What we know:
This protein has helices at 12-23, 25-50, 61-82, 96-119, 125-155, 169-181, 216-223, 238-250, 293-309, 311-325, 355-366, 383-390, 398-403, 417-420, 451-463, 467-483, and strands spanning 161-166, 187-194, 209-212, 227-230, 254-257, 269-274, 277-282, 330-336, 342-348, 408-410, 436-438. It is an alpha/beta fold.
Amino acid sequence: MTLLSGLPAQAVPASAHARRTLGFLPLTLLALDVALISVAGTIAVLGREELSIFDVSAGGIRESVGMVGPVMLLGWVAAIAVLGGYRQEVFGAGTDEYKRVLNAGLVATGLTAVGCYVAQYPLSRGFFLLAYAIGVPLVLIGRYTVRKMLHAARRRGALTRRVLIAGTRSHVDDVARVLGRERWLGYDVIGALTPEWDLGEETSTGLPVLGNTTDAPEVAQDQGADIIFFAGGSAGSATVMRSMFWTLEKQQVGVVVAPSVTDISSERVGIRPVGGLPLIHIDPPTWSDASRWGKRLFDVLGSLGLILAFSPLLVFVALRIRLHDGGPLLFSHPRIGRHGEEFSCLKFRTMVPDADRLIADMQTESGASALLFKVKGDPRITRPGRWLRRFSVDEVPQLFNVLRGDMSLVGPRPQVAKEVALYDHAMSRRLHVRPGMTGLWQVSGRSDLTLEEAVRLDLYYVDNWSMLQDVSILARTARAVLGSRGAY
């Protein structure tokens, strides 16, 4: 195995610049929090004076706030700091940052109320309510905005951290695929470290092998790495790992242990140390929760509301299709639903009446897989069908499928029996839940995704279902549809 020499001198400063810039992030967020809390306080003072729901005759609001306001501000910021809201590891990903900031706002609210009560300080209740009712959401929005700006910078290749991945080549590739796919995380994978018995020069994905796992500290220093991911097969014993971590700590190189599991939501993962051994507990998949009455009630109420809202559109589209060629308005096609049961999936007709007879020839000509089959410039699509498909209006009649229980508002894409017959063991898990009008793959690229990516997203949804995720997908669906991204 070849141990490559260090990078050229000009390659390291970019990472050093990113480290320095990210080092200022806690101070930037501190300044932003102070500014937003001050804005919330100013709005609360003005609201207390102007809104008729409060007793404006009390007077003296500015004087009382002038005394207690700075204490409230400092206490709020201190609560965020004590609860870890300015720690580097919570920035950029996950819900931990938002939870800490939210909890800090609640703590500050409670401390202010208790403090004023104990001290018998006559703080205006109107100001108190407005300050925290406006301030807590405002600080959370500020954090969200900074995170989106950070993600955008990382997608452009800025503020990234140089990463080495240690482990067997198969485990290295698993981690590298995830980091490469999620560019917003800001991890720039520069190479791999493999066990001494592995003599390969590169992994199957083309990632260069820069040395042995036991040489991690030396390689990290030579290559200017910021973080090392330790995947499966990266060390022979806990003693070796501990010694390596101590050395990396002195070099100020970050350490991340990547378990050999992927596509598990954070809600299903828990770390519980036992006797100094950190055990990762993974809760069972949540697909059974997606079949309970809560989701069904959400589907019924949601579909009824959307049918009423879209009723003028339904009438317009029906007239447009009828006037175009006089053919049937709806296309009813047998699809496979939950537990493999067949149902008739409704759509506005967007193709010529004999479209089904032409699909076999088209698959042969294009060489496309029968799974998730779609082609650009499909000659079977009618003129009104083009814009119906572009904005997914053709799928609006599926709201009636949702209402009668064949489908859900959110779930995997419904497929025909011929496609389901090609399922392997993993893909058959899609049948645990009702198929959906929209889903993760639709809001993540739709037809622009590869088959492997679409299947991965569907399986992630099935195994990690939550009502909050459904609401998020529905919110993202409108943006994906209006942008027409991947629709044809």
